[in-house]
């Protein structure tokens, strides 16, 4: 009985200590109502849309952090905190090159703030303005291309708009989405525009909601249509990939039968033992000038797209009169074939194999789409050359292949 009471006593003491500890949680051991000293020896390094500020910290032992208060533009306040373990902070988000006053304030561990040291920064041209000044728009098949430099690597949005009514009412039609990028060189294309002259407008925005002036241009997109697949036919050349014949079920035409999301085995699938880059050839029936293409990958077991034989790195070649005289031709040295481009499929999330995010799945389900380089000739025969699949080998799996042009 004595031992039981002793253990109960210990338990009550423990609970009391825990309760007391909880009341003191996150409170400083010592409360200091005296404000800390000021920073000194302040120096400024102005950069594009921002400034780096260095300083000497005050000597207070209980200094917690340095706070910078400023306005990125008139009436828009911003604040940056830097711990006592560094003597440099960055103030960013400026939308202009005007002078901006930054207040540097020291704060101790009790939350008591010092007075402020004021310093003036003069940021260089912000990234969104550099991008807007370099923006170039050019007509292409079914739309237009956008190219600009983004030397600061800022998160930018290029916003395209069109005046569909001709009365200055700017809208974004279906498929005319914002272009988001932080690449130092931004290049993309907008398609699905009618081949009539209309006024288009473009503005560049950064993540701080600064907008550039609007560029207005008149454009007449080149006529583009989806190339009719009813005239396509198999053309098996020497060294072309061997079809995986699953009891007579797998055929080349599954690559252009119009079914973008087939079940097994209604897909183009080659033998998996290939040890060199594989090629597949299509006769389009007549010559066409190409603008872009789309590959729909096959949904493998386990609901994965970025696996096995689905294309990752590949080339597209074109010809009008393939040389059939060589029994074992090498496309790399065959002058009757012209390389139209080398392409790489990007997995949006960059996640490892058999880990696919919603963005990964949506990109694959909608089809991996690529633009051909401008200025190509017209070709009747197309050859897909697989350089690497998602397994790191050469066999090919394609659910559907689609071309646009005229």
Main attributes of the structure:
406 residues, elongated, Immunoglobulin-like, five-stranded antiparallel β-sheet, mainly beta, Jelly Rolls, single chain
Can you give a write-up of this model?
There is one protein chain. The protein has 406 residues and is mainly beta. The protein folds into three domains: 82 residues, Immunoglobulins (Immunoglobulin-like, Sandwich), CATH 2.60.40.10; 97 residues, Immunoglobulin-like (Sandwich); 180 residues, Jelly Rolls. 10% of the residues lie in helices and 41% in strands. It has three helices and 25 strands. The strands form six sheets. Strands 16, 17, 19, 20, 21, 22, 23 and 25 form an eight-stranded antiparallel β-sheet that branches. Strands 10, 11, 12, 14 and 15 form a five-stranded antiparallel β-sheet that branches. Strands 4-3-6-7 form a four-stranded antiparallel β-sheet, with no helix packed on it. A hairpin with a 6-residue loop joins strand 10 and strand 11. The radius of gyration is 31 Å and the shape is elongated. The relative contact order is 0.11. InterPro entries: DUF4959 (IPR032527), DUF5000 (IPR032164), DUF5126 (IPR033431), Galactose-bd-like_sf (IPR008979). It comes from Arachidicoccus rhizosphaerae.
